Amino acid sequence: MTIDSVKAFLKEYDGEDMRIMEVCGSHTAAIASCGIRDMLSDRIHLISGPGCPVCVTPSSYIDKLIELSLKPGYCVVTFGDIMRVPGSRESLLDARSRGAEVVMVYSPLDCIDIAEKSPEKIFVFAAVGFETTAPVYAQLIDRVIKAGIENIHILTAIKTMPAVIGRIMENGAPIDGFLAPGHVSVITGYDAFSDIARVYAIPFVVAGFTGERLLVALFDLVKNRGRGLVKNDYPSVVTREGNLKAKELTDKYFKPCGAVWRGLGKIKGSGLILREEYSHLDEGSVFLDEDIKLNKACICDRVLTGSKNPAECPLFGRGCTPSSPQGACMVSREGSCFTHFVNDIRGK
Amino acid sequence: MEEQISMLHGSGGSATSKLIETVFAEAFGDTYVNDMDDAAVLRGNERIAVTTDSFVVTPVFYPGGDIGRLCVCGSVNDLLSRGAVPKYLTVAFVIEEGARISELKKAASSIALTVREAGVKIACGDTKVIEGSGGFMINTTGIGFVEKDTDISARGARPKDHIIVSGSLGDHHACILSQRLEVSNSITSDNAPLTEMAAKLKKLKVHSIRDITRGGLATVLYELAASSGKRFIINEADLPVSEEVRGFCGIMGLDPLYMGNEGKLVCIVDEADSEEALCAIRESKYGEAARDIGVVEEADEGELFVITSIGGRRRLYPLADEGLPRIC
Q: What is the dotted CATH code of the domain comprising B7-145?
């Protein structure tokens, strides 16, 4: 099968409607930047699921970060994306403009240097992410414990993928196949999706991030419609078992917990939290289970589960834009509303 | 102890005079045409182009340039985008207490070097001292002459015109960001005055010229498409981006289409003259990597598309966020 025949197949497909969900923010971004929607038949629909860790972080978590950043002697350390996520009243960026202590970094481990320079302050790392980033947080905790660093704490909102996909299918979402997350699968292994694939008789294809890899994965999904299988189209980095060393390190410091997803509520076994023996490093993550909707008209929950597309939201592009996001999906550049907005994918 | 600026340097008295003489007059030399009068009187022209810009960059000195070179290039290149011949520049420094005299001297001589290269004179200048932490900012106003029959503007694009970009995208932005984030690489800023390049385009049917600054090529082209009400289509495969900038953008989750330059222009050229224009730019200093990247089509309203490397079509919009790094 050549790439040209894959392209021709996807453009000319006239079988049953095929609704494919991607649950990885980087896939959402790559699909948009490669212009892939334009290369598909009208019968193939791409839906962006809850694949952006920033988007699914509940408002109570942001509120807690803001509270900590304003507390004397405290400083919040975070990735850039989190800065703009709306809490129930404001974002960290807003709080910073009125004096909150917030530092932006590119790696959690940068936190160690920063904390060393100001031993009088407590630095709280905003540990947000999926299975992909969890090992790096485990590495940070490992270093903190081994070096006896006393002024680094974390506030966690770490989510795990299989449980949320299970919830989406349980709720009867009209999905015919999943582009399984490439980065998450590197850690978890593709076997993590086998049970759901079997139970709901839908195909999962683990995909890479280039345009061609995505097209091939979409082709495989359409070809396997109705079959409960997992196919690995990203074998150069994804294996059946995943990265055992990373999983082991994560396991050492974190345990599964119920987690609140913005717009979706609490899902059993869909998050990670520090184990009891390390809970003195936690700034209270366990109590954060409230999620306040910023704007009543926002349909982020339905966008995240694939029952609505961003353009169907009454706020989309009117009041909710990347510069003034009303819902979480408009915040991160990997959020489905943001991606739809900047790439003008109105009807699709 | 290194000599630093104090509030006294802003008093208007002898300390101010000394600052002007030893730092600015010394560096500017014969590029300065005013005789310490309150206002400069200049020879004029029937049509004058004026532009102003303030430069606040961190760090002040970076690989490939500094705030001095930047503040000249910024205003000179803005004049060129209206087809003007740049003639004069005003230079105003706002200096924070604690600024090092050595750094001011370095920036001033960089200004002098760059105005010579750009072929303009400094008509007047100003210094102000404010409280702060040792930084400084510069405002420049550029004045240029526009020939009678020149009609280059943002709304000039016509169907079948070609879109030509003068070189690799994102260099300045990637350089500054690398410095701020302490990422070590060899990316240097492209800040440069494009006077020579623009002069070579004079005789050709060029309908629009823009220098590509903040917001990057996509933002600039979107504005030109919107002003002219035409559809612009560019090819991703033809976009010039250096390997290093591409790699840096990949790691940071940034798109070179939205990364700014300070020494690149994009021009919209009549189909008949497009090959000649491409050659003229390639023969100019700073234009060797120029590429013809797309065409203009008739449309109901302005829109911009990029044909992606795998053959998809993606609609582009102006820069929508502040370019914060993504999380994964």
A: 3.30.1330.10
